[in-house]
Design brief:
The chain is mainly beta. The protein contains no helices and eleven strands. The radius of gyration is 14 Å and the shape is globular.
């Protein structure tokens, strides 16, 4: 059974940093692409960024470029989202996701249906 557990969320002032972690069990992350999404009440879940299964490529939403970095530790089977220079508009519940099987290993995926497994989410609140 695949289980993804996010941690690292919390309350931070604008301009601060947080690092979210997503620890996986039941799946070997290096064989799959991962992504981070976020959601605020009343809005659709928004793609933040992703990393290819190969680990060789990352991509980010425009809102995250230059501020957020995704990485993966294959030994710890954990994917991270480092968030710097946080803004109040980054306030959301953040979710990690693991792609469906059989997808190209060099690609980063942006769309919700391309992900098969989801964590429970962790709240990030950025105060102004």
């Amino acid at each position: 059974q695949v289980r993804l557990v996010e941690s690292g969320g919390g309350l931070v002032q604008a301009g601060g940093s947080l690092r979210l972690s997503c620890a996986a069990s039941g799946v070997t992350l290096r064989g799959y692409a991962e992504g981070w999404f976020r959601q605020t009440p009343g809005k659709e879940r928004e793609w933040v960024g992703g990393i290819a299964a190969s680990g060789g490529s990352t991509d980010y939403a425009d809102s995250a470029k230059g501020r957020f970095t995704i990485s993966r530790d294959n030994v710890k089977n954990t994917v991270y989202l480092q968030m710097n220079n946080l803004k109040p508009e980054d306030t959301a519940v953040y979710y990690c996701a693991v792609s469906a099987a059989g997808l190209a290993s060099h690609l980063v995926f942006r769309r919700y249906p391309e992900y098969a497994y989801w964590g429970q989410g962790t709240q990030v609140t950025v105060s102004s």
